[in-house]
Amino acid sequence: MKVAIIGAGAIGVRIGMELAERDVDVEIYDAKYPEYGTTGRSIGVVSVQQRDPRLVSLALESSKLMADLDKRLKQDVGYPVGVMGEAAPHVSIALTPKDREDIARQSNVWRSAGADVKEMSPIEVKDALLPWIDDRAFTSAFVTTNDYKVTAFPYAYGMLMIMRSKGGKVFRSREVTGFETNGSIVKAAVINGSQRVEADAFVIAAGAASPKLISKLGDNPVPVRIALGGGAVTEPYKYAFRPIVTVDRKGYRFTQTLRNEFVMAVYDMGVDNPDMSVEESLRVMERMATVTVKLFPSFTYMNALRQWGAYLDYTADRLPVVGWSSRHENVYYAYGFGNYGFSVGPAMASRAACEIASGSRDPLLDPFRPPRA
Q1: Residue 240 — φ and ψ, nearest 5°?
Q2: What is the DSSP letter of 271?
Q3: Cα 49 from Cα 370, distance rounded (Å)
Q4: Cα-based angle 100, 226, 323 (whole degrees, multiple of 5)
Q5: Cα–Cα distance for residue pair 200/217, rounded to 1 Å
Q6: In percent, how much of the chain has pLDDT > 70?
Q7: For the whole model, what pTM was predicted?
Q8: Which strand (E) or helix (H) includes residue 288?
């Protein structure tokens, strides 16, 4: 069996690795290069702090898969353990009493799905987890201990190395410009306007570009709305900041990587705005800096070395689209992951690969299948 995957982000690469390990002939095609899109612009957090209990369960599974992969990368390709990531406590900050009420309701969802959750006072947070935080800047915090933080590039390239060791291939600068079909079967993808790539099955995992590709097939994609997110990285400091910090009301996340840089992100800088751009910097940087300095006044003089933007693809129901096309029997969709691709993507990609390779149907993926309104 040969499978052609369109998109070399975290979802496409994970599906490719899992398929290659099932002795499937895998080729991945990306219009730019691996991790060019949202994956490479993420700060890499597997978070169980999701609003839907089904996503919480998948995030718990993803966290375990990340830890397993970290160990495998040492055995298979010589990565030192911990280069890719590590388990970390995740502190969700309530700035106001109203925030506390909202997060308390959400925490019931996390807990009901099996996550470990504890509410902590500002003083407890400062004493136990974040000695740098201003305990006067927030009302309360809810801490989960099932989360995992990932360095995106070692994660993706580690999976590509495993995939290649099993015979898989990845091609850069290969834009899919069309498809050749025969009834309900897609015979080939057309690359860069002329090259034909034949396969037994095709996986569209191209993030925000997926609906456009699906439209080329004459299918009706589950629509997505495009949100602007952004991130920044500082110069390296001695590693001491293990927790992940989130202020959901501000769409803000912050942690320190295992490479010693601090990374921060915002994920709600506007939706479907024709003027927004991943090159936007001042407005994104201002949001990140304002929240960081409010919580951590001593970090005021950190030097940010680089800032970037990202397009996040959200469906109307905020659930990813994963499953076979209802129109073309050998086309599989995996997109609409928004800002939670690292959180639920590993588990969903692993289950998707099993479906593609075996022809089975995983009931846990049923809520995410196309078509949806």
Answers
A1: -150, -10
A2: B
A3: 25
A4: 95
A5: 16
A6: 96
A7: 0.94
A8: helix 282-295
Packing angle of the helix pair 341-358, 10-20 (nearest 10 deg): 40
Write the DSSP string, 66-91: HHHHHHHHHHHH-PPTTSSEEEEEEE
In DSSP terms, 179 is beta-bridged to 189
The answer for residues whose C-beta is within 8 angstroms of residue 68's C-beta and 6 or more apart is none
Q: What is the spatial distance between Cα 205 and Cα 70, in angstroms, rounded to a whole number?
A: 23
Residue with tokens 């995996």: 334
Residue holding tokens 């994660």? Answer: 155
Nearest partner of 292 among 116, 127, 134, 143, judged by Cα: 134
- Of the pLDDT bands very low, low, confident and very high (cuts 50, 70, 90), residue 1 is very high
DSSP strand pairing (85-94 vs 244-247): parallel
* Contacting residues for 221 by C-beta, under 8 A, at least 6 apart: 210, 211, 214, 215, 321, 333, 370
CB 315 within 8 Å of CB 308:
no
Strand partners, 182: 185
Domains of the chain: 2-41+154-223+319-368 (3.50.50.60), 88-148+225-315 (3.30.9.10)
Alpha helices in 129-274 (DSSP H): 152-165, 210-216
Residues in contact with 301: Cβ distance below 8 Å, sequence separation at least 6, in sequence order = none
Residue with tokens 């079967």: 185
CA atoms within 13 A of residue 201's CA, in its CB half-sphere? 26
CA 9 to CA 310: how far, in whole Å?
A: 13
Q: What does the buried/exposed string (b/e) look like for 223-244 if buried means 16 or more CB atoms within 10 Å of the residue's CB?
A: ebebbbbbbbbbeeeeeebebb
Residues in the chain: 373
| H or E stretch at 143 | strand 140-150
pLDDT surpassing 70 at residue 82: no
* pLDDT digits 0-9 by tens, 256-306: 998 899 999 998 766 766 566 666 667 788 889 999 999 999 999 999 998
Q: Please, are residues 365 and 348 in contact by the beta-carbon 8 Å criterion?
A: yes
Tokens read off for 113: 């799905």
